[in-house]
Structure formats: structure tokens, C-alpha cells
Amino acid sequence: MTHIDAGTDLDPVHPTTAPATGRARGLTAAEVAERVARGEVNDVPVRSSRSLVDIVRANVFTRFNAIIGVLWLIMLFVAPIQDSLFGFVILANTGIGIVQEWRAKKTLDSLAVIGEAKPTVRRDGVAAVVGTSEIVLGDLIEIGPGDKIVVDGACVETDGLEIDESLLTGEADPVVKHPGDPVMSGSFVVAGGGAFTATKVGREAYAAQLAEEASRFTLVHSELRSGISTILKYVTWMMVPTAIGLIISQLVVKENGFRDSVARTVGGIVPMVPEGLVLLTSVAFAIGVIRLGRKQCLVQELPAIEGLARVDTVCLDKTGTLTEGGMDVTGLRPLNGSDEAYVRKVLGALGESDPRPNASLKAIIDAYPDSEDWRCTEALPFSSARKYSGARLSEGDGQSSAWLLGAPDVLLPDDDPALTETERLNEEGLRVLLLVRVTRELDDPEVARDAHPTALVVLEQRLRPDAADTLRYFDEQNVRAKVISGDNAVSVGAVAGKLGLTGVVVDARRLPAERDEMGEALDAGTVFGRVTPRQKRDMVGALQSRGHTVAMTGDGVNDVLALKDADIGVSMGSGSEATRAVAQIVLLNNSFATLPSVVAEGRRVIGNITRVATLFLVKTVYSVLLAALVACWQVEYPFLPRHLTLLSTLTIGVPAFFLALAPNKERARPHFVRRVMRYAVPGGVLAALATFSTYLIARHYYTGEGALEAETSAATLTLFLISMWVLAIIARPYTWWRLGLVAAMGGAFLLVLAVPRLQDFFALRLVGTTMPWTAVAIAAGSAVALEFLWRWVDHRFPA
């Protein structure tokens, strides 16, 4: 037995072997233990998660929390506790954000364990499935179609092994591997099988750094998050000079008491900060992950929730998506006088020739058991690009024959009479494979030339019971479905028709290669058959070039390139390791019916954050403008922090939390910043002008002791009523709970005005009747103006 020393260069061509068979046995248990003790294990970081420390740091140490924190500490020393309430609100909000994100992390981590790759490792001559992190240096790893190469290595055994390295090199053509050839982590098997020795594991592997970088928590990378960051940048620019002017006006120009001046200055600065907007976005995303996790949906990149909500075209792979993975042989049609009993033996031997059969071959294996006296002497594994597999068989009587099994319209010329029968069966939605006898060598590029048709194998595909409802949902939501399959176009069209999906059926071999022309053909068609893996990728790109946001679903290796290039890649949990690795969303329950839940969750998040962002930014705009007006007029700032804490809680904080988590089916639209600011700016300007007008009128109306408190109360009433009207507009269309929410917030404010203790606590007391009714009238006029103004904005600046 040869011992491989991990401290020296591994010789992948001569691993430990069994003397009796010559088959590589892999490491022994003692060698594995020795490597684990030396730390030579595949310690790749856990995917899609960040630590609790990172979560706390991200939620606590923010620019705006620092501003609010400093102002809060100042207020704790110079003002009553009710003027420091805003600080406690920030603490509570930050705590909620940390808890929700921690829950989302645990959900992601638990689902990632379920969906992670499980390589097969041969140790002591026995193959066993292990976790990726259990692989050690020198392990012998078995691979087959669809398997992802999880560590770097060198081939030991190959059987028609073809590996796609496009995710690493960008070259789409599969690479044929022979013993001794290197394999790189991040590539995947498209045909054949074999085994390789691990030469680099953990962070030393070729793709480890890329994988670690790509799998980090990616909440910040989305149009929604980047849009909010843009808004906050502009807010900061506006806030700094305005706050300086307010400080000067309150502390230098006006001759107020120091404590009161500081309190009113802080009262002007605090509401400029839309601190809850970032928090609410994080909470909405986190809750979305938790909700989807309960439905066995792994969101590998959080912005995928947002991305799928923006999708207007879904490209569906038929097999495994519209149909279940399994098939049943329903008929055998011998051709050209072939003997059926002989054909059954050929099919049985072909089935046993592939150690990792696909769904079609599994059905043939179930229907036609292998004959003991037949054996395979050479195999040609199935390839999505070729559309056929093959084998050279040694028959029981010593004769040798070569056979191909695959797509009839690929193996036969267009005028062959067998295609007529094939077409008829395809129109019934049946899948048909052709068995042909060949005279050329299997590795001949033209092996199918002059082939002798021997039999048609008829298979029936099992439709997913939920596929029709899911397709109907997409149609109702104005999301176009495109079925893209490697199978015969007529057969795929018949299957789609059974599920209620109608439209033009296209043979992809006749699609134009030029991107613009292909895009036009894709827009016109619905079902596309005989699509090659490279064509799938080109089709996704052509749709994107025409302005479509494209989602691609699939479960096979032929879908990987398209999944990678699509805006959103969706893989089935039972799909190949390669598809799960590149997809942003993995449906662990293998249910296509889960997809509407993902779309709905994304629409809920984006639509609702767009709504509540308007609430927050209306407050920011009117706060900045009020501070500027106060500085220009050289008057006391009308509000203390307690007043704006009350207003923010009732008109923004509480309502925004409920609105952010409410159902929302509207398809997400682009230009988040423009959509939000076109409402926030006019709404905020109108609120500031109306409030300041009430305040100036009240300053002329009230005189003597307590005048400032009366003036503040009148201004607060106007600002509250306008803010409530903004909330009432944002809450549309009304449902019973939305109306109840608006009414409850109004009732809470009336309670504060009616209860003496609350009046004292919040320093709110309406004096007389003239000024309060004036405040109401100004607010009512502003509400009417706001309705007209927002409708004009809708018409003048459509989103």
C-alpha cells in the first residue's frame, strides 16, 4: 500500500489502490485522522451569514446613531426626561433590528446546511457521502454529472469525464479530462464521471477566496439599499448647514435661557434624521428571509428577494420545473423489422453502462433489466450539447455492437420516415428517444452518420400538480413565462399546453444568432425546444438587452450558465450541486409552487418600503425647511424634542412598522429615489410652510406668560393634521385594518390633548378656540392642496 505524505507534493495519478482490483481505495481512517489533527481540512467559511458581532456593529455604529446618541446625551443633562424620549426610541428600534437580523441569520444558516453540497468520498475502498468541510487533503472524491468540484485536485479515474470551467475561466466549452489532469474548485461535471484526489483544500483552493467573497452577507447591494444610501447622503448635506444656522439662531441671536435654547435646537436637528428608514428596510428584509425560510426557500443572497419582485420574464426549464424529475416508459416501437426481445436486451445493457443515469435512462433501467451475459466495453456519457449517449456492448454470443440513444431529430436526417411517428407522439406531450446502431467509433465526431434506426422508446413525463396554478399566477401578475428546454419543441409545447400555457412554439435550432434578432424572436415566442446550454445563456442575455428583468429556473447542469447570467437564478433543492451553487434562490422542497411566495415577498418588501420611505422623508424635508425658516426669521424654534417624538411615533414610527409588513402585490418598479422624492419634497415643503404660517400667526395672537407654549401647541396641531393626511394618502388603498390604523393614531393624539397629565408631560395645551381652529383650517387647506399637488406630480413626473 502506497502512503501519501501530505507534507510532500501529492501524486494524483498513483493514489492508494487495492492490489486485487487496481481501483483506487482512497485514504485509510488513520490517514484521515492524521490530516485532521494537522488541520489539513476543508475549512471553508459558512455561506450567507455574518456573525452576531458584525450584526450588532452594523446596527449600532451608524452615522445617524452617532448624531442621535450625542444629542440624546446632551438632552439627558439639560432637559426633562420627556425631551429625551427620542433616544429610548432609537435604542428600541436598534434592538429590534438586531433581533430580527439575528433570527434571519439563524434561518439562513440552518437552510444553508440543508442545501449544501454533499460530495462522495472514497475511503478504505468504500464510498461515503460527507459534508464539504469534512474533506481532508489527499481524499479521493468521486464525481458524476451535475457534481460541483468543491476542492482543487487531480484526476485519478475518468470515464468520458467532461468538466465545465466557465464559472472560473469564462470559456463555455466543456473540457475533457484524463487521469493526471487538474480540476479546479468552482467548476462542475457536465458529462461522464470519475474520481480525483484533493490537492488543495480550504482557503488554499482556487475558488475559495472568490466563494468567500461572493457568499458574504449582501444585504447592502440592491437598488433599494443603494437608493436609500443616496437619499441619506443628500440629507446629510442639507442637514449640516441647516443645523449650524439653527444653533446660531437659538443660542446667539435669541436671548433664551441656555437649557431651553439647547432643547429647541436639538428639537430641530433630531427630526432631520430619517433614522428609522434604514432600520425598517433591514427588518423588512430579515422578516422576508424568515417567512421564506419557513417555506423551505433558501435565499442565498438577500437582495434576490428584491430582484425577483422586479422580474417581468421567467424562463422555465421544463424538466424538474414544470415536470417532476421521474419518467415512465409507456411504449417501445421497433423500427425496420427489429426484434423487440433483442432491443430490450440492448436497452437493459445501455442502462447499466452509465453509473449516474439521468431521468430518461433511469426509466429505461426500471423497464428493461440488464441481461447478465451482456456487458459494456466502452461508454459515451450523455451530454446536453450532443443530445445523446452511447455504448459499445459485448453481447452474450461474443458479438460486439455500438449503439446511441438520444433525440430522434438529432440522430436522424430531416427526411427520415421515423420522424413522422416521433412528431405524432411529441404532439401528445410524450418524450421520444431513438435507439440507433452505429458502425463508427464512439469518439468519432460524426458517429451518428449512417446510423441504423432500431427502435423508438416512448416516455411519459409526470407533470407537477402545482405547475398550472403557478403559471396562472405569473400570468395574472403580468410576468411572462418562457419555457426553454433541450427537449423536442413539439413535445415541450404539448406539455406547456396541458398546463394552460399557450403561445408560439419555436425550435431553437432555427433561432437567429444575432442578439437583437434573437430578442425579437424570444418576445414573440413562448415555448422553445432543442435549446443548447450555450443558447440558454444567449437567450437570457438577449431578453436582458431588450430591457427585461429575467429570472431563470432550472435543476440540471445544462441550466448553470443561464442561471448565472440571469438577474435571478432559481434552483431546485434536488438539482445538481452546480445549479445550487450559482443560484440566488434554492427551493429546498423542490416545489415550483413556492416561487409565487418569493415573488410576493419581494413585492411586499419593495412596495412597502417605498411607501414608508415617503413618510420618513416628508418629515426630513419639513424639518430641514422649518429649521431654515426659523434661522431666517430669527425666532424661537417652535418645537421641543418631546413634540416631534410624539408626532413621529404617531404619524411615522408605528404606522410605518405595520405598513412595511403588510401584503403588497404590486410589481416593483425601478427608480426608487425618484419615486420617493417626487412625493416627499412637495409634501414636506407644504407641511413646513403651513406649520410655520400657523406659528407666525400664533406669535402675533398670543402674548404674555405661556405664550410660547400656546404657540408651540397650535403649530404642533397643524403639523400633526398634515402628517396624518400624508399617512392617510400613503395607506391607500384602504382596508379595514389600514383605516383602523389611521384612526387609532388620530385617537392617540386626541387622548394626549384631553388628559391633563399627558398635556403636562408633552407640554401641549390648546389655549382658546380662535387659534386652534385657525390651525385646523390651515391644515385642512394644506391637505386639499396636497391632494392636488401629488396628483399633478403623478401626471407631470410619472415614475
Automatic annotation (TrEMBL):
Bilayer topology: Multi-pass membrane protein
Protein localization: Cell membrane
UniProt domain P-type ATPase A: residue ranges: 119-213
Keyword Transmembrane annotated: yes
Region feature (Disordered): 1-24
Pfam families (UniProt xref): E1-E2_ATPase (PF00122), Hydrolase (PF00702)
Parts of the chain that traverse the membrane: 60-79, 85-102, 234-253, 273-292, 612-631, 643-662, 683-702, 714-732, 739-758, 770-790
Protein name listed in UniProt: Cation-translocating P-type ATPase
Organism (species): Streptomyces ossamyceticus
